[in-house]
Prior knowledge:
Strand content of chain B: 25-35%
Oligomer: heteropentamer
Structural class of chain B: alpha/beta
Largest interface: D-E, 45 and 52 residues
Bound molecules: adenosine-5'-triphosphate, leucine, magnesium ion
Helix content of chain B: 25-40%
Structural class of chain D: mainly alpha
Amino acid sequence: MDLLIDLVQLSIYGIVLGSILTLGAIGVSMIFGILRFAHFAHGDLMTIGAYVGLSFLVFTGLPIWWALPAGMIGAALTALLVDQAVYKHIRRTQPVILLISSFGMALVLRSLVQLIWGPNVYSYSGGIQRPWWFGEIAIVPNHVWILLAAVLIVAALHLFLTRTRMGKAMRAMSDNMDLALITGIPAERVIMLTWILGGALAAGAGVLLGMDSRLTPTMGWNILLPVFAAAILGGIGRPYGAIAGGMIIGMAMEISTLFLEPSYKPAVAFVIMVAVLIVRPQGIFKGTL
Amino acid sequence: MSLLTATDIYGGYGGADILKGAGLRVETDEIVVIVGPNGAGKSTMMKAIFGLLRVRTGQVLYQGDDITNAKPEQMVRRGIAYVPQEKNVFPSLTVEENLEMGAFLMSRDIKPRLEKVYAVFPKLRDRRRQQAGLMSGGERQMVAMGRALMIDPKLLMLDEPTAGLSPLLIDETFERIKEIQALGIGVLMVEQNAKQALAIAHRGYVLATGTNRHEDTGPNLLANREVAEMFLGG
Amino acid sequence: MIKIEHVSKAFGGIQAVDDVSFEVAEGSITGLIGPNGAGKSTLFNIVAGLIRPDSGRISLEGRDITGRRPHQLFHQGLVRTFQIPHEFSRMTVRENLMVVPAGQAGENLFKAWFRWGQVREQDSKVLERVDEVLDFLEISHVADELAGNLSGGQKKLLDLGRTMMTDARAVLLDEPGAGVNRTLLGKISEAIQRLNTERGYTFCLIEHDMDLISKLCDPVHVMANGALIASGPMSEIRQNEQVREAYLGGGASGRMGEQR
Amino acid sequence: MEFAGIAAYLVSFFTFVGIYAILALGLNMQWGFTGQFNIGIAGFFAVGAYTSAILTVPESPWHVGGFGHTFLIGVAGAVIASALLGLIIGWITARLRTDYLAIATIGIAETLRLVIANETWLTNGVRGMSRIERPYADFFQALGLTSAMGSLIVVTAFLVAVYFLVERARQSPWGRVLRAIRENEPAAEAAGKNIGRFRLEAFVVGSAIMGLGGALYAHYFGFLSPEAFLPLYGTFLVWVMLIAGGSGNNKGALLGAVVIWIIWSGSEFVMSATLPDSWSSQSGPLRVLLIGVLLQVILITRPQGLLPEKAPKTVPTGRSRESD
Amino acid sequence: DGLRIGALVPTTGDLQVYGETSLNGIRLAVDEINAAGGVLGENIRLRSGDTQTSPQAGVDAAQRLATIEGVHAFVGALASGVTIPVAQSVSRQEGLAQISGASTSPVITDLDDDDFLFRTVPSDAFQGVALAQIARDEGFESLAVLYINNDYGLGLAEAFSEAFEAQGGTIANSASYEPGQSSYRGELRRVGRGGTEGLVLIGYPENGQTIVRQALEGGFFERFVFTDGLRSPEMISAIGAEFMDGTIGSAPRALDDNPGAQHFRDAYREQHGEVPPQPFMDSAYDAVYLIALAAQRAGTTDRVAIRDNLRAVAGPPGERVYPGEWRRALELLEAGEEINYEGASGSVDFDENGDVPGTFAHWRVENGEIVDVRVFAPEE
Ligand SMILES: Nc1ncnc2c1ncn2[C@@H]1O[C@H](COP(=O)(O)OP(=O)(O)OP(=O)(O)O)[C@@H](O)[C@H]1O
Ligand SMILES: Nc1ncnc2c1ncn2[C@@H]1O[C@H](COP(=O)(O)OP(=O)(O)OP(=O)(O)O)[C@@H](O)[C@H]1O
Ligand SMILES: CC(C)C[C@H](N)C(=O)O
Ligand SMILES: [Mg+2]
Ligand SMILES: [Mg+2]
């Protein structure tokens, strides 16, 4: 019985963590799908989003939820800028160059966050929330909102990808950039859009992460590997798989603390991921968008 | 005014020039064929015209406008469609999605266009949901042509459209090309099935090592002994 | 030499190969033709070990080779080319060919480290052979070019060149002529013939160029919709109504290579 | 800033660069030659370092060990252990596509780091292992050299040997097959190459070289803790060195190690010399910013690296080639 | 040729926050000494190197300072994981004294450092004992422990648990956590089992805030026991005073009757503004004083001579000298007298291992303020 309660409670925590991972993983997955490289600066885009949201709140005094749109705009613009300033020029080289470049970009973004906001720890709002109790299960109100926000963002993205030709154009681009150009697909516009979406999603993850924990310059970098694990698990390049991947990783990490020394917790994500990769090298979910 | 004229084109891939003064002309409702040995620069010439390769010197005119080194997107907007020799489909998209992508720049309803293409290549209708990357070599060639036709082009540029097609389809393709030309579309194509191609061509160019070797009407080139021996396989 | 027995393969709903059986006789140049999408390449891929058949059996010189990996088959004397060229892009043309010969001592890391002399000596022999092949295919002038920069036709030639680098006994050629200049193709067909008569290579080739097929191949097998619909010498095949309708058509291309 | 000081610094600088160059050469074997995307270098690095440490340190009440073996046995153990690890990982990840291999390897490396941090009996966990001796300090002392110089000599000797082996491997038919596999697997397989075997060989040899780098690291630093094997210094720095130097090119790997370490460590020099004191608290992030920007500049201006890959010279045939 | 001191502090990486304040402390000491006549008649020159909180970068920076810059002694590093490799591969090899003001790992105590490594903070082994005493004084019987998985967390957790149980308390659950996670709820649920009176949390603010918040929100714990790492006003303002009131903790701290601590705070405020909550800046400040005194007493900037004089100036016998009394120290040394430096962070008397015994504050949050209840030396 106790075990059951533990499992339920930890699963709830896992879903909250999973929502955050999912938003990050969808972005990673999309960028991989179009541009064919693992974007190592994605975590730091999350950080930027979270901090922009924070500054927006501080300057305007608006309620906490405004951090979300503000952060999304901030990170989308950052992503766009980074792409135009750097990635654009090396897009035609091998993906590994882009990967290393994105790693350098991660350093740049992180140090900018430090220069602008300093190394201290911030949070969006002081104080804590008392949980609602359902029998022995506790649910914190924020968690409901976080989950809701994640669902809304994913739904909006889904509509965008299926109701517009841009979604298909994105995949076409990821197949064959040259042919896309020849066909008249405005490749640059599609790429820019990808960065805008990816940046906005990253910021979504960052702001929600900030709401659930706190803001530090390394918050995004620290969560990057689980985000990758989620993307991989869902089958990288498949945004919808990322949702399942995020949830599985999130839950597995929380539930693992029941059985394992918690300092092994981050390893849980990796072990699951590696195991899945070995059994199913294409990720757990087949099928495309 | 010619539909397309390219004069004195020099250009290459960064190193030495591949094209060394080649040129050509396509009139509205004319089929023009480029033949020549492998590596002569035929595909390079197509790319240069379509703006995929920097033309170092020389000029490309389309309906009297200078389009030298214009962006591919511009070309498509002006009604030039190009089917490259290799990698000419989006492998992970379905057949129908490949065709849709062909009409990406056209904002109007694409259904009728799709129907038109399916009428030309009925097999594609049967396979509309199949991923293009999993199709046979010949089937892909159809997808690629279909994709190009989606924009209702005024000038259609085909790089070896019949490579890998069955004899029946080769003949059919050349028939289609004639039909397309009859609609008032200029066709510029590179071909290794040179005899059949020249047979339907109004004019032909023989390209070797980046320069024009011969230029004449199709039948004349076919009749030319030297051309036949050196370039058409006797 | 190669015996294909009741081989079938389906991809999802498509029956790509449907209960095909035939034999490639030792020393023959066997042709395989058929409409686009008939399943020819798929059959090749099955024989060459790239795809596992759903059912059926392949044997090479009497030994069952169903499901063997391509590199294992290579060592049993079976090599193939690809319909869409598979070059080693960022290696030079010369290196592309140097990779191929089997049993190079230097492929063993310890020998490469500690028996350098032997390795170099072998390499220079390989190189001589490479240069012969390049000359033959008329692509010596691009020998030091990266293979990825070759023209479409040149890549096909390179692919063919790789099979010439081996001591193969049976060679599967998937459309060696597509995109190759006809004058050169004439020479290539001579080469195939020479390899066949002088060196005893057995060939099985897919081709849509009826000129080449009639000149080289006997017998010819015809596939359509995954199944074998006709076999025999080309002159007979031409008379087959079904083949004419599904494949050859009545046009110039279908009539190519007819005795004039 | 006297000459002796600079010389002494250069000794440590080049020891450092030498160790990283060895790691970069190991990576070149895997990525540059074969296209195996290993971003778990830190894992092999750590296993090599800890193996050698455990084999050589004197007895300690905190963790296993007390074997007190000599330096060379430690190194041999490190090479063997990391080769074995490479064998296992290479084998289980054999079927993985490039990008998946990447994530799998970083996952494995992070897991290994956590094992090192948590399995105290084996590695003394987060407290780290100390008392690892520099190689042949007594011997070099007898020659009138400091232990730092001795380390440099030892590291250089290993670097030269590794360079020689790796370069010869690259020029050999073995290396040619690897590059062929990198470019096109089906074609390499159709050419009769056992892809699995070659890939695994390259992965194992590369891993062993990384393990060697780890052992040298342990003996130079004298102290190991899991912090040294975080991805930033354990993995990414090596990648940056190889890519900036020119992957596929062994000289590039060497040059990359030098240039990137100069940027990494020299940038601080520049910062402290140019920034006013009031900026000092910003100097850290500014320096990282500078590093990031410089890296982008290298990648944009030299996407193939400072020394791009070149095909190895083929043996002259003796036959004179008529020009065409 | 005057005294050159090399400061090894992280201005990037995980401990950057501590690095900045430590550097401020070091600067303050250097400025004070220089203003009061310098060492051996010349100004101290300060050179700093960024350890990036990483052993690789730390060693490289130290090496550069020791060779190119030719410094005569080090202050630093902060993280034990950096301090130890620097000591092993630079300080010991190049033969110069290294005094860390922050590395608290018990490993340092019996490290093979050829006596070149010193520290002005007490080992976590001592603080653990102090913390146990504080927890017992507050009446805790049964506690859960959650500690950061590094040498700092482990050292404190072990020392605390041992001492607490020796004094009759119970450790219900104990677990370590990996820093940088976004959720610690699983960990909290694990240690929260079986009804304990509170949570002993050993870590740094970065993750500490998250953990405390999640502990309260999930209803896992109501009361907390902290160590120096979490003694920070930020923590209280972020969580809310109403939840933090009653939280207790330990921190290395000079005995109250020490005038040095007061001087340090005043001087710091004057030079750098508000005194931040971070620990270790006073201990870094003391390290500079000790090096300067040792050089002055040795009468030379020779590296080994400085090292050899450190114990003499740090501990008894001798006239007590406090921070800000550089002139007086000069005079005493001039007169050939022995001195005993009493620092801003405590008495800083080095034992044979280069450790200092240290005294600790028992602090408590009251009305949102951190209040020192008492300062004491832990009993063995
Ligand atoms: N991996 C696959 N998955 C799904 N369908 C496939 C796959 N490979 C081939 N097909 C389908 O199987 C059929 C046979 O293809 P195959 O490539 O064998 O044809 P082919 O006879 O070689 O044609 P062509 O002469 O045009 O090259 C085609 O309809 C093709 O679309
Ligand atoms: N991307 C490239 N980079 C460098 N050189 C190239 C590139 N593509 C082609 N070349 C070179 O340019 C020359 C002409 O190539 P092109 O593709 O135009 O030939 P082609 O006439 O179309 O031949 P084919 O009939 O074989 O397709 C060839 O020698 C080829 O090696
Ligand atoms: C700056 C401090 C948090 C360092 C810590 N006491 C350690 O020894 O690692
Ligand atoms: Mg071409
Ligand atoms: Mg085929």
